[in-house]
């Protein structure tokens, strides 16, 4: 029973740990590994809330922990990654610019947490920090093909879009099997590309996270069918 109540929080703590490891990899110059760990964090973030609802163990502790995880893994970690890959040549100014991303993201999360209207499944108000951090991680994976100017523009745009009042279409209303299929195919193609280019430094944690995530999607698919 205790494990059942703790499982969603364990996934969320795993998300935070991925953010910490990502910062460490970025600081040591392993930018591809740092980006992959953020993507693993996205997989865990997609699971924890649904697992809590599926097991009927939702709690205020879990919700607050999830917000803290989002700030670390999708706010602080991507900002370090972008600093080391794009803004490092600007010195202290680049460090200050990169630090704006978690500030905007934390504000967006706080605004969402105190919002009275969280019932809409059709749209988000502002870009979620999870999506923004994931976009930066994906851009880093293909950083050799994308000019720094474009990454800078996208970085700046995401900062302001997170705190904007723009309505962003939500995938919450999409049935999980369809959404899960899209996510699985996307991750499969991405992992194939990364695997071909960076076998030696590939973080083996992905071999654990990906099967667990796919097994989770399969379980949800079978449950909905029943």
TrEMBL record:
The keyword Magnesium does not apply. Pfam families: CDP-OH_P_transf. The lineage of its organism: Bacteria, Bacillati, Bacillota, Bacilli, Bacillales. It comes from the Bacteria. It is a multi-pass membrane protein. One of its GO terms (biological process) is phospholipid biosynthetic process. It catalyses: a CDP-1,2-diacyl-sn-glycerol + L-serine = a 1,2-diacyl-sn-glycero-3-phospho-L-serine + CMP + H(+). The chain crosses the membrane at residues 7-28, 90-109, 121-139, 145-164, 176-195, 201-222. This is CDP-diacylglycerol--serine O-phosphatidyltransferase. Its EC number is 2.7.8.8. It comes from Anaerobacillus isosaccharinicus. GO terms for cellular component: endomembrane system; membrane. Keywords: Lipid biosynthesis, Lipid metabolism, Membrane, Phospholipid biosynthesis, Phospholipid metabolism, Transferase, Transmembrane, Transmembrane helix.
